[in-house]
Amino acid sequence: MVFEAFGDLPQVRDVAEPIPSPDGVVVAVEATGVCRSDWHAWRGHDPDVRLPHVPGHELAGTIVAVGERVRVRRVGERVTVPFVCACGACPQCASGNQQICDNQFQPGFSGWGSFAERVALDHADVNLVPLPDGLDSVTAAALGCRFGTAFRAVLRQGELSAGEWVAVHGCGGAGMSAVLLAVAAGARVVAVDLSAEVLAMAKQFGAEVTIQSDNPAEEIREITGGGAHLSLDCVGLPATCAASVASLRKRGRHVQVGLMPPEQGVPPIPMHRVIADELRILGSHGLQAHEYPAMLDFVTRSGLDLGRLVGRRISLDEAPAALAEMDRPVPARAGVTVVELPRP
């Protein structure tokens, strides 16, 4: 699925076969999620995107070719990958923070991505994550960005404790994942969205309170008896960021999950409150490959059914229209849309 101008509807057509770099692999894609980050790339909000371009970064599939310097990964392995692919050699990687690698490669952004039958991925031994036999490719496709991002945002950056109030602003893929994770961790969740269908799904996932509003801060503070301990902006708009910060109680934590391209404006953060109430403002940028075992272990121990996150399955030919649907401010459907491709 290729676009040659930002905002023009992408086309599904044949392109040259990818070849692996010396330390990379080629993966036959079996499933790839349709994410709002892909929408940002298509709309020209990411300076790393060069035209023509193939988007897509949430993927699962089977390795079909390996580079000469690859030592760990093998043809035939089923794998997924974080949306931030690390170099494995910079200071950030050496400290275990591959999610902010100084030399990161992002499929679907800095290179061609996974809305395709095959995708080339660099630094395979550092970045690829083998999939358990019991995890199907459609479900695994949601791990690399939205669920993985939510896992880090809620449990690592957000430092959630059982019994705390969590406000989730925007219950798309990342937000719904955050609801699922926070409930599993024993939190009390307030889900905020403009879509009644999305909020109904959040309620099914265990949200204690749902709010259909674009200005929910006062209501959240009242419901929670002073404000949320942890609040996440999973949309990435100035208004939702500001509402998330305004929803906090004293010493509360705001985690910014949704991307915020400068073209969409700068959020009005009340720094006087940040100081007076000792609020913490944090970013969260994906999840390192070495954290995947801990994430999968949490899923197993909590009994989470990740398949519940999948809203619909579509073909590659249907992907351009699915991407264009994200122009709407309110999601057209609840749950994650996943492109499913035939196995090689």
Question: Can you describe this structure?
Answer:
Residues 7-339 form the Enoyl reductase (ER) domain. Belongs to the zinc-containing alcohol dehydrogenase family. Its cofactor is Zn(2+). InterPro entries: ADH-like_C (IPR013149), ADH-like_N (IPR013154), ADH_Zn_CS (IPR002328), ER (IPR020843), GroES-like_sf (IPR011032), NAD(P)-bd_dom_sf (IPR036291), Zn_alcohol_dh (IPR050129). The chain is of the alpha/beta class. The chain starts with 24 loop residues before the first strand and ends with a strand. It has helices at residues 36-42, 91-94, 124-127, 137-141, 143-157, 173-184, 196-204, 217-223, 238-246, 271-276, 292-302, 319-324; strands at 25-34, 59-66, 78-80, 118-121, 129-130, 165-169, 188-192, 209-211, 228-233, 248-256, 280-283, 310-314, 336-340.
Which CATH-level-2 architecture of the largest domain? Alpha-Beta Complex
DSSP strand count: 13
Element-level helix/strand string: EHEEHEHEHHEHEHEHEHEHEHEHE
CATH superfamily of the largest domain: Medium-chain alcohol dehydrogenases, catalytic domain
Q: Which structural class matches the secondary elements?
A: alpha/beta
**Distinct helical segment count:** 12
